[in-house]
Request: fold
Amino acid sequence: MGENTTAEMPFDLTEVDKWVLSQTDDEFTCHTWDELRHLIQNNQLSLLKRKPSDLRRYIEWTTETKKEYGSITNYLLAYRLPKAWGSPPLAPASDTPFEDPSDYRVLINDWPYGLAPGITHIVVWSRTPIPADAEIGDMTPESRKTAGEFVKRYFADSLGPGGEDKVMWFKNWVALQSVRTVDHIHVLVRDVEPAVLQQWAEEQECHRPQR
Reply:
């Protein structure tokens, strides 16, 4: 990644991104569960980072995808998000985020942060806009409560006793989002069986277009 490529970047690189790109994977230290908890609790989301090789591939993928599809949103709606959602502007079934199953889609993140073994990065995409403070771009208290209740219900409770200790979540501020057209939250889980992850991310009938 030569210095002269900065102007061609598909999104603004943060200082953390630039620092990561100066490293090799061997020099990189993966986020532990305790570190993730600290960053999320203190809203230090700008410090979350991908492995150097993953970040380089993500930059390349984003560049090529934008060239081919015009935007990452167009690609997501074509290949990753429910066909029933159609094209923007999206028309949710409910004005309340995560209330109607047809309005959200759970997917394993294609481009996870650099996480310690046993931690899985999930993204929950929402057809319903998630309210954010217009000035700072962070969630409102009401939307944070709504999202927290959904995460507890969908993820933590399904893991049984102690499930809340295996789940954390956050929503990036607007300035940190590489995809802004479709709202989404990030969910991190640890020591969850692959079969459970698959069940969470399974496409539902409500995600398919009605015939």
Notes: Strands lie at 104-108, 119-126, 167-170, 183-190. The longest helix spans residues 52-69. The chain is about 30% helix and 10% strand.
